[in-house]
Amino acid sequence: MSLTDDIALAHRLADAAGEAIRPYWRGSIGLESKADASPVTLADRAAEEAMRRILTAEASRDGIQGEEFGIERESATRRWVLDPIDGTTSFVAGRPIFGTLIALLKDGFPVVGVIDQPILGERWVGATGRGTTFNGAEVRTRPCRELSDALLATTSPALFSDHAAEHFMALAQQTAHRRMIWGGDCYNYGLLASGQIDLVCEDGLKLHDFAALVPVVEGAGGTMADWNGEPLHAGSEGHVIALGDPARLEDVVEALACAH
Fold first, then answer.
1. Which whole-number Å values give the CA distances from 194 to 22, 81, 174, 213, 216, in the listed order?
2. Nearest to 100 by CA among 176, 20, 163
3. Which end of the chain is more exposed for a tag (fewer CB within 10 A), N or C?
4. What is the pTM of this model?
5. pLDDT on residue 23
Protein backbone atom coordinates (compact mmCIF):
# COMPACT_ATOMS: atom_id res chain seq x y z
CA MET A 1 0.00 0.00 0.00
CA SER A 2 1.12 3.56 -0.71
CA LEU A 3 1.28 6.21 2.00
CA THR A 4 -1.80 7.81 0.45
CA ASP A 5 -3.65 4.49 0.76
CA ASP A 6 -2.50 4.12 4.37
CA ILE A 7 -3.80 7.59 5.24
CA ALA A 8 -7.12 6.85 3.57
CA LEU A 9 -7.41 3.63 5.57
CA ALA A 10 -6.60 5.52 8.78
CA HIS A 11 -9.46 7.91 7.99
CA ARG A 12 -11.86 4.99 7.55
CA LEU A 13 -10.74 3.55 10.87
CA ALA A 14 -11.37 6.87 12.60
CA ASP A 15 -14.80 7.18 10.96
CA ALA A 16 -15.77 3.70 12.14
CA ALA A 17 -14.54 4.34 15.68
CA GLY A 18 -16.50 7.57 15.87
CA GLU A 19 -19.67 5.87 14.72
CA ALA A 20 -19.21 3.26 17.46
CA ILE A 21 -18.48 5.82 20.19
CA ARG A 22 -21.13 8.49 19.63
CA PRO A 23 -24.18 6.39 20.65
CA TYR A 24 -22.64 5.99 24.12
CA TRP A 25 -21.79 9.68 24.59
CA ARG A 26 -23.24 10.94 27.90
CA GLY A 27 -25.40 7.83 28.08
CA SER A 28 -25.19 4.27 29.39
CA ILE A 29 -21.54 3.36 28.97
CA GLY A 30 -21.07 0.15 30.98
CA LEU A 31 -18.12 1.43 33.01
CA GLU A 32 -15.71 -1.17 34.40
CA SER A 33 -12.23 -1.15 35.92
CA LYS A 34 -9.42 -3.16 34.34
CA ALA A 35 -6.75 -5.05 36.29
CA ASP A 36 -4.58 -1.91 36.49
CA ALA A 37 -7.58 0.09 37.84
CA SER A 38 -7.89 2.10 34.62
CA PRO A 39 -11.44 2.55 33.33
CA VAL A 40 -12.95 0.87 30.27
CA THR A 41 -16.40 1.26 28.73
CA LEU A 42 -18.60 -0.40 26.14
CA ALA A 43 -17.61 2.42 23.80
CA ASP A 44 -13.88 1.57 24.11
CA ARG A 45 -14.53 -2.02 23.14
CA ALA A 46 -17.04 -1.27 20.38
CA ALA A 47 -14.70 1.24 18.75
CA GLU A 48 -11.71 -1.08 18.76
CA GLU A 49 -13.78 -3.96 17.42
CA ALA A 50 -15.03 -1.76 14.57
CA MET A 51 -11.48 -0.79 13.62
CA ARG A 52 -10.24 -4.37 13.84
CA ARG A 53 -12.97 -5.55 11.48
CA ILE A 54 -11.82 -3.08 8.83
CA LEU A 55 -8.16 -3.99 9.23
CA THR A 56 -8.90 -7.69 9.02
CA ALA A 57 -10.80 -7.10 5.78
CA GLU A 58 -8.48 -4.57 4.15
CA ALA A 59 -4.99 -5.13 5.60
CA SER A 60 -4.95 -8.78 6.62
CA ARG A 61 -1.14 -9.06 6.58
CA ASP A 62 -0.59 -6.10 8.89
CA GLY A 63 -0.20 -6.49 12.61
CA ILE A 64 -2.74 -5.00 14.99
CA GLN A 65 -2.08 -3.82 18.54
CA GLY A 66 -4.99 -2.38 20.48
CA GLU A 67 -5.41 -1.28 24.06
CA GLU A 68 -8.44 -3.49 24.67
CA PHE A 69 -7.80 -6.69 22.67
CA GLY A 70 -4.03 -7.12 22.46
CA ILE A 71 -1.76 -8.00 19.55
CA GLU A 72 -2.35 -9.90 16.34
CA ARG A 73 0.45 -10.86 13.92
CA GLU A 74 3.12 -9.48 16.23
CA SER A 75 5.97 -10.27 13.81
CA ALA A 76 4.53 -8.14 10.98
CA THR A 77 6.79 -5.26 9.91
CA ARG A 78 3.68 -3.07 9.52
CA ARG A 79 1.58 -2.71 12.65
CA TRP A 80 -1.55 -0.67 13.33
CA VAL A 81 -1.66 0.59 16.91
CA LEU A 82 -5.11 1.52 18.22
CA ASP A 83 -6.35 3.37 21.28
CA PRO A 84 -10.12 3.56 20.81
CA ILE A 85 -10.63 6.13 23.58
CA ASP A 86 -7.56 7.88 24.90
CA GLY A 87 -8.91 9.69 27.94
CA THR A 88 -11.64 7.32 29.07
CA THR A 89 -11.99 9.28 32.32
CA SER A 90 -12.81 12.41 30.31
CA PHE A 91 -15.26 10.40 28.19
CA VAL A 92 -16.99 9.06 31.30
CA ALA A 93 -17.24 12.59 32.72
CA GLY A 94 -18.80 13.90 29.50
CA ARG A 95 -15.80 16.07 28.63
CA PRO A 96 -15.10 16.12 24.84
CA ILE A 97 -11.31 16.19 25.16
CA PHE A 98 -10.74 12.45 24.72
CA GLY A 99 -9.77 11.05 21.35
CA THR A 100 -9.33 7.98 19.20
CA LEU A 101 -5.66 7.33 18.40
CA ILE A 102 -4.63 5.42 15.27
CA ALA A 103 -1.02 4.82 14.25
CA LEU A 104 0.77 2.83 11.60
CA LEU A 105 4.26 1.65 12.55
CA LYS A 106 6.81 0.39 10.08
CA ASP A 107 9.71 -1.52 11.60
CA GLY A 108 8.74 -0.13 14.98
CA PHE A 109 8.58 3.58 14.07
CA PRO A 110 5.36 5.59 13.65
CA VAL A 111 4.77 6.77 10.06
CA VAL A 112 1.05 7.65 10.12
CA GLY A 113 -0.90 9.08 13.04
CA VAL A 114 -4.47 10.23 13.65
CA ILE A 115 -5.99 12.05 16.64
CA ASP A 116 -9.76 12.05 16.22
CA GLN A 117 -12.26 13.80 18.49
CA PRO A 118 -15.56 12.28 17.38
CA ILE A 119 -17.89 14.54 19.36
CA LEU A 120 -16.46 17.88 18.24
CA GLY A 121 -15.70 16.56 14.76
CA GLU A 122 -12.00 17.43 14.98
CA ARG A 123 -9.27 15.35 13.38
CA TRP A 124 -5.51 15.78 13.15
CA VAL A 125 -3.64 13.61 10.64
CA GLY A 126 0.13 13.33 10.34
CA ALA A 127 2.37 11.21 8.12
CA THR A 128 6.09 10.98 7.45
CA GLY A 129 7.17 13.51 4.84
CA ARG A 130 3.83 15.33 4.84
CA GLY A 131 2.44 18.31 6.69
CA THR A 132 -0.03 17.67 9.48
CA THR A 133 -3.63 18.62 8.77
CA PHE A 134 -6.51 19.60 11.04
CA ASN A 135 -9.84 18.85 9.36
CA GLY A 136 -8.03 18.96 6.04
CA ALA A 137 -6.15 22.25 6.49
CA GLU A 138 -2.41 22.25 7.22
CA VAL A 139 -1.37 23.37 10.69
CA ARG A 140 1.93 24.39 12.27
CA THR A 141 3.35 24.56 15.77
CA ARG A 142 4.43 27.91 17.13
CA PRO A 143 7.91 29.17 18.03
CA CYS A 144 8.95 29.45 21.69
CA ARG A 145 11.93 31.76 22.28
CA GLU A 146 12.57 30.78 25.90
CA LEU A 147 11.55 27.84 28.07
CA SER A 148 10.20 30.39 30.57
CA ASP A 149 7.63 31.39 27.93
CA ALA A 150 6.41 27.83 27.36
CA LEU A 151 2.80 26.88 28.05
CA LEU A 152 3.08 23.38 29.54
CA ALA A 153 0.37 20.74 29.64
CA THR A 154 0.07 17.28 31.19
CA THR A 155 -2.87 14.96 31.78
CA SER A 156 -2.62 14.45 35.54
CA PRO A 157 0.00 14.66 38.32
CA ALA A 158 -1.45 11.39 39.65
CA LEU A 159 -0.06 9.55 36.62
CA PHE A 160 3.57 10.32 37.50
CA SER A 161 5.60 8.06 39.75
CA ASP A 162 7.03 9.87 42.78
CA HIS A 163 10.48 9.96 41.19
CA ALA A 164 9.20 11.15 37.82
CA ALA A 165 7.03 13.79 39.50
CA GLU A 166 10.13 15.41 40.99
CA HIS A 167 11.68 15.70 37.55
CA PHE A 168 8.45 17.00 36.05
CA MET A 169 8.16 19.73 38.68
CA ALA A 170 11.78 20.73 38.05
CA LEU A 171 10.77 21.26 34.42
CA ALA A 172 7.49 22.99 35.30
CA GLN A 173 9.25 25.55 37.47
CA GLN A 174 11.23 26.73 34.43
CA THR A 175 8.13 27.19 32.25
CA ALA A 176 5.21 29.62 32.44
CA HIS A 177 3.91 27.40 35.23
CA ARG A 178 1.19 29.76 36.43
CA ARG A 179 -0.58 29.02 33.15
CA MET A 180 0.07 25.26 33.21
CA ILE A 181 -2.74 23.07 31.85
CA TRP A 182 -3.90 19.97 33.74
CA GLY A 183 -5.99 17.44 31.85
CA GLY A 184 -6.44 16.99 28.14
CA ASP A 185 -5.06 13.55 27.28
CA CYS A 186 -4.29 13.28 23.55
CA TYR A 187 -6.19 16.51 22.85
CA ASN A 188 -3.22 18.48 24.20
CA TYR A 189 -1.02 17.11 21.43
CA GLY A 190 -3.48 18.19 18.78
CA LEU A 191 -3.54 21.67 20.28
CA LEU A 192 0.27 21.69 20.29
CA ALA A 193 0.29 20.75 16.59
CA SER A 194 -2.11 23.63 15.93
CA GLY A 195 0.12 26.13 17.74
CA GLN A 196 -1.96 26.57 20.90
CA ILE A 197 0.37 24.85 23.42
CA ASP A 198 4.17 24.78 23.54
CA LEU A 199 5.05 21.69 25.56
CA VAL A 200 3.48 18.46 26.81
CA CYS A 201 5.27 16.18 29.27
CA GLU A 202 3.97 12.79 30.41
CA ASP A 203 5.14 9.70 32.30
CA GLY A 204 4.11 6.07 32.02
CA LEU A 205 2.57 6.15 28.55
CA LYS A 206 2.21 2.94 26.59
CA LEU A 207 2.75 2.51 22.86
CA HIS A 208 -0.95 2.92 22.09
CA ASP A 209 -0.89 6.21 24.04
CA PHE A 210 1.92 7.90 22.09
CA ALA A 211 2.47 6.21 18.70
CA ALA A 212 -0.18 8.21 16.83
CA LEU A 213 1.00 11.47 18.34
CA VAL A 214 4.47 11.36 16.83
CA PRO A 215 3.57 11.89 13.13
CA VAL A 216 0.97 14.51 14.09
CA VAL A 217 3.37 16.62 16.16
CA GLU A 218 6.39 16.20 13.89
CA GLY A 219 4.43 16.82 10.70
CA ALA A 220 3.38 20.17 12.17
CA GLY A 221 7.01 21.20 12.77
CA GLY A 222 7.37 20.00 16.35
CA THR A 223 9.31 17.15 17.88
CA MET A 224 8.60 14.23 20.17
CA ALA A 225 11.16 12.41 22.27
CA ASP A 226 11.72 10.55 25.50
CA TRP A 227 13.07 12.39 28.55
CA ASN A 228 16.62 11.82 27.29
CA GLY A 229 15.81 13.49 23.99
CA GLU A 230 15.80 10.23 22.01
CA PRO A 231 13.22 9.52 19.26
CA LEU A 232 10.15 7.51 20.22
CA HIS A 233 9.61 3.99 18.85
CA ALA A 234 7.92 0.73 19.77
CA GLY A 235 10.48 0.03 22.50
CA SER A 236 10.31 3.42 24.23
CA GLU A 237 9.46 3.31 27.94
CA GLY A 238 6.78 5.98 27.94
CA HIS A 239 8.52 9.05 29.41
CA VAL A 240 7.32 11.43 26.69
CA ILE A 241 8.00 15.02 25.66
CA ALA A 242 6.18 16.86 22.87
CA LEU A 243 7.57 20.25 21.83
CA GLY A 244 6.20 22.75 19.38
CA ASP A 245 9.63 24.34 18.93
CA PRO A 246 12.40 21.73 18.52
CA ALA A 247 14.96 24.39 19.48
CA ARG A 248 13.83 24.02 23.10
CA LEU A 249 14.48 20.26 23.31
CA GLU A 250 17.90 20.60 24.92
CA ASP A 251 16.47 23.05 27.47
CA VAL A 252 13.66 20.64 28.37
CA VAL A 253 15.95 17.63 28.71
CA GLU A 254 18.31 19.64 30.89
CA ALA A 255 15.45 20.86 33.09
CA LEU A 256 14.09 17.33 33.54
CA ALA A 257 17.54 16.17 34.64
CA CYS A 258 17.81 18.86 37.34
CA ALA A 259 15.83 17.06 40.06
CA HIS A 260 17.73 15.03 42.64
1. 25, 23, 23, 13, 10
2. 20
3. C
4. 0.93
5. 92
